[in-house]
Each structure stands twice: as structure tokens, then as C-alpha cells.
Prior knowledge:
By secondary structure, the protein is an alpha/beta fold. The chain has helices at residues 12-23, 69-76, 99-105, 123-138, 151-157, 202-219, and strands at 4-8, 27-32, 62-65, 82-85, 111-114, 166-169, 189-191.
Amino acid sequence: VGQRLGVLGYGSIGRQVGNVAKAMGMDVIAYTARPRTTPESKHDTGFIVPGTGDPEGKIPNAWYSGTDKKDLHHFLAQDIDHLLVSVPLTKDTTHLLSEEEFGILSKRNAFVTNISRGPIIDQPALIAALKAYDAHTASMTDGQGGFAVAPEADMKADTSIPGLKGAALDVTDPEPLPKDDPLWDAPNCIVTPHISGLGSAYVDRCFQVFEVNLERREKGERLINVVDRERGY
């Protein structure tokens, strides 16, 4: 409650996460590659499970867009507490989030969740950001679970605590993650084996998309969930 969720890639998955986040009392902001300046442009034109997502794009309190670093950094600087990474992997989004981006997110020591593809995140840079925050907070304790200094006093003296509070990663680079990869030992990091998209209704929904497109094709209408080969998704 009261925290801000930044959704990097406001597609069907990002919209449903935004839906749940708003229900939990969070402020939601969205980032897309293309500008969404009209009510119609904010609509979800893909397959929608009834009662889920954000069909009309009304959940975000603010929309940001762009394809260059300047636009991305402007979005990341919006006091984000939790960042959801849900953009597709292309040559342009490979290592989209690296040392500089994590430095911006360190303003509020954000928590990063990646349910997209591993290479979007520069993994060594993420590990360094997690370790930086962990090392700083460890220096504030007395080694016995208490604080060596009053946390309020320390915060007033230093308002630039480095790093990220934590990360939840359903995807990694590479996959499967080697047993000796340093990500396993990164502090405050949860790693799951690329299973966040699985569910009991997954296959049924795939057939629902097929049925919708079969009807649209029969009527000569535009299909949904079409891959743009030039854009790569």
C-alpha cells in the first residue's frame, strides 16, 4: 500500500500485474515503446481473459514511452519502489537494464522482478547492485540482529544508500543457470526456473486464442496476438 510499481512493458502480462497491484493499493505507472497519447491508443488489442488485465488502459496514473536511454531513464527516475520487467527480448532490449539504470533505481533502492527474458538484465550489474545494498545495511547492524546506530539517524546522515533491495527472477542468463553462477549467492534474490507463465488454464487459453483468430480469419478481420517480424515480437 502506498508504494509505486513501474511496469516496463505494459502488455497483457504487465496489465494484469498492474491490475493486482492497484487492488493492493499501489500506484502504477507504465512504460511502452510507442507513445499512448489517446484513450484508444491505450487499449489492449490482444487476447484478454475476461475480468483480468487493463483492457482500456485506465490503471496507470502516468504513461511514459520511448526507445532510447534518455526516455528510459526518465521513467526509472519516477520514484519507483518495484520495477516489473515485461518487455520482449530484442537486440534493442538486450542489457536494457545495467549499471546506470540500477543506479537510478537506487534512489529508492527498488525491488526488481523479471518475468520476461534473462538477457534484458545485465546480470553481473544486478548482482553488484544487490551486494551494494546488502553491504550497506549490514554495516548498520551490530552483528547480533540489532542496529549499531539508530537507523533514523543514519538515514538523515546518508540519504544515498546504494543498490537494490532485492530481485525476483523467473528468467536468467543463461538458462539453465549453472550451479556455480554467482547469482545463486546474490543477497535478497529469488530465482525460479522460468515457470511463471505456467498454469492449469494455459493450454485452454492457447486454444481460445486460436478459436478467436479462426473466426476472425473467416470474417476477413485482423488477427490478434500477431508477431511483427520486423520488431521481433
